[in-house]
Amino acid sequence: MSDTEPVLDALKTVLDPDSEKHVLQLDMIRDLRTEDGKIYLTVQIHDPMSTFASDVERACRAALSPLVDSPSDVRISLDNDMIDLGAELTVDGATQSDGFSGARNIVAVASGKGGVGKSTVSVNLAVALAQQGFAVGLVDTDIYGPSIPTMFGVEDAKPKVAENRRILPIERYGVKLLSMGFLVDPGKAVVWRGPMVTSAVKQFLSDTEWGDLDFLILDLPPGTGDIQLTIVQTVPLNGAVVVSTPQRVALADARKGVAMFDQVHVPVLGLVENMAWFEPPDVPGRRYYLFGEGGARALAEELNVPLLGELPIDEEVRRNCDDGTPAAAHQGTPAAAAFDALARRVTEEVWRRNATRPATQKVEILRR
Ligand SMILES: Nc1ncnc2c1ncn2[C@@H]1O[C@H](COP(=O)(O)OP(=O)(O)OP(=O)(O)O)[C@@H](O)[C@H]1O
Ligand SMILES: [Mg+2]
User: Fold this and answer.
1) Which residue puts its alpha carbon closest to atom 14 of ligand 1?
2) 89-93, 197-201, 328-332: which has the minimum mean pLDDT?
3) For atom 28 of ligand 1, which residue has the closest CA?
4) Where do the domains of the chain lie, and which CATH numbers do they carry?
5) Chain CA centroid to CA 134, Å
6) Element at 3 (helix H, strand E)
7) Residue closest to 205 by CA, chosen among 178, 171, 170
8) Which of 19, 145, 180, 192 lies in disulfide reach of 196, CB 3.0 to 4.6 Å?
9) Residue 214, SS3 per DSSP
10) Ligand 1 center to residue 160 CA distance, Å?
11) pLDDT score, position 360
12) How far is the CA of 165 from the centre of ligand 1 (A)?
């Protein structure tokens, strides 16, 4: 337990009266640290015109004062900024974004092994976050095998281009979507080399009219090769979710995935174990651990990262992927509840990371 833990607990009592969410849920805390009995933090103001913006500093001081000897030991600075995707991804200042378009948090969903459920998790995480009231974007970066268009039932969608030449994402279930599959014929992309893929992804992110997003989810292609490495180095990620199934081969590849993010200093928000067990609908409570039991939990403990969720094999989930209606949108089902819980764990980890770690720096920028 770190010494920032009591501070985080105290900050959870600082509520925005309008939304009734606390400052961590509102993702307003940055650079939190404690040193020599003093608390240092930055409050990030997302909406400078709100009444909460004028009151939040005082409210944080009041909540934190019981933890320090003197009120002057609470050191708060105020800031307002967002990741402007246009500006962030500009190589030499030549590309200016027209109007504001950015994301507060960019989260990659990755795996080492293919077919473990990255796209399923990305899609349902995005839908669950949108249902929780967040502004969410989702990008399918898998140029060779895009699956998000199918999972949302929009295979034939063609995004429009605005007058300012920016791409307008397709919107489904409250999620703004873009897939390589909308713009590039996957059959033709097969011959693309790594640098072409990454520059296309980068252009994709910076030239799209996302509006003002709370979360942008990136569904990565399987593996830990050059393409994945370049994407995670090019985009300022807040964190990564690593998906695995319980088999030893999948876990070994998940370990490689975590190592890749460590290498480029992107925090791993946690592991998700997908296809963890099968519970026959006609024998409720009976769980079959078809691919092994407890492997992801053990790996999470070993690597000291959270286990964000365990998702069973669910025929509905598979069917919903195929028929284009994400399981998370089917309110009241066990799958929707599981994805809702997963989304809450992910946001919790993003806030914790944002509050306690400096912003992720891009390691390298590739030229278009
Ligand atoms: N929990 C689950 N229950 C049942 N089916 C699932 C579950 N998770 C994923 N699937 C199914 O498994 C298949 C693979 O899932 P998905 O496409 O999400 O994997 P992926 O990791 O994105 O694959 P790729 O590596 O090719 O990108 C899909 O048909 C999906 O419907
Ligand atoms: Mg996929």
Assistant:
1) 115
2) 89-93
3) 318
4) 5-79 (3.30.300.130), 85-356 (3.40.50.300)
5) 12
6) none
7) 178
8) 192
9) strand
10) 29
11) 57
12) 34
Tokens 């691919």, residue? Answer: 291
Q: Are strands 83-84 and 102-110 parallel, antiparallel or unpaired?
A: antiparallel
Between the CA of 124 and the centroid of ligand 2 the distance, in Å, is 13
Q: Is 164 exposed, middle or buried (0-12, 13-18, 19+ CB in 10 A)?
A: exposed
Strand bridging mode 212-219 / 136-140: parallel
Residue type, 163: E
Q: What is the pTM of this model?
A: 0.81
Q: Cβ of 134: how many Cβ atoms within 10 Å? A: 19
Joined together, the tokens standing for residue 139 give 């990008």
The candidate with the shortest Cα–Cα distance to 275, out of 256, 252, 286, 291, is 291
Q: How much distance in Å is there from the Cα of 174 to the middle of ligand 1?
A: 22
Q: What token pair was written down for 215?
A: 């979360």
**Coil vs helix vs strand at 242:** strand
The string of pLDDT tens digits covering residues 34-59 is 999 999 999 988 777 778 888 899 99
Six-digit token pair at 217? 């989810």
| Whether the CB of 234 sits within 6 Å of ligand 1 | no
